[in-house]
Amino acid sequence: MPENCSPLNAQLCAAPTTTPPDPTAPAPPVVVTLRDIASFVPAKPGNEMEPGGWAVEDLPANFVAAASVQVVSGTLLGQPADVRFTPVGYRWRHSDGGVLESGAPGATWAMLGQREFTTTGTSHVYADSGEYTVALEVVLRAEYRFAGSGWRAIAGTLAVAGDPQRVLVGDFDTVLTDGDCNANPSGPGC
């Protein structure tokens, strides 16, 4: 009996009513968050460009991300588990202020069947000569599984940064020559 039990405090005298747990009831679902998978680290994405490391003022430079589906194994909630990271978005931040977001990683001009310096879905044009940097972030969706079970989604996305890339931009002029300037350095236009 509770110590303050008296006829004036009848509710204190009543024994608490408890219902025994139903052994057939399903266990509450496990909720895994991005914080729970912090120890599962995906690889940094690659950040490539065409032409390699340089660009021509007022002409498109083409950027291509190298990121693919990855499975990282480890321990989650005290159990062996796998976490699968799937790229779902790409963001290039250019130091001239340009930002490009895409649902695709981009492709080389050759893969697209395009000539060099043509616009692509992931290209960027620098208006002025100088040295710039471009930083790539890949947005990943995460899923987990225990002991080979089916994949379960984790709410939210995770952004993983690649190494910044240096881009040297110059203004180039074309010059018409009569022949090979290496063979005839004093020829017209050489």
Question: If you had to describe this structure to a student in words, what would you say it looks like?
Answer:
This protein has two helices and ten strands, in the order αββββββαββββ. It is mainly beta and 190 residues long. The protein has a single domain, classed as Immunoglobulin-like (Sandwich), CATH 2.60.40. The strands form two sheets. Strands 2, 4, 5, 6, 8, 9 and 10 form a seven-stranded mixed beta sheet that branches. The radius of gyration is 30 Å and the shape is rod-shaped. The protein starts with 9 loop residues before the first helix and ends in a 20-residue tail after the last strand. 21% of the residues are buried. The mean pLDDT is 88. InterPro entries: PKD_dom. This is PKD domain-containing protein.
Layout of strands and helices, then pairs:
Elements: H1 10-13, E1 46-50, E2 54-56, E3 60-66, E4 70-76, E5 79-94, E6 99-102, H2 109-112, E7 123-125, E8 130-146, E9 152-161, E10 165-170
InterPro entries: PKD_dom
Protein name: PKD domain-containing protein
CATH topology: Immunoglobulin-like
Shape: rod-shaped
Count every helix, treating DSSP H or I runs of 4 or more residues as helices: 2
Q: Level of helix content?
A: under 10%
Distance between the termini: 108 Å
Oligomer: single chain
- The ordered string of helix (H) and strand (E) elements is HEEEEEEHEEEE
Largest beta-sheet details? 7 strands, mixed
Decide which structural class fits the backbone.
mainly beta
Give the name of the CATH superfamily: Immunoglobulins
CATH class: Mainly Beta
Number of domains: 1
| Secondary structure: number of strands | 10
CATH-defined architecture: Sandwich
Question: If you compute it from the alpha carbons, what radius of gyration comes out, rounded to the nearest whole angstrom?
Answer: 30 Å
Low-confidence stretches: none
Q: Report strand %.
A: 35-45%
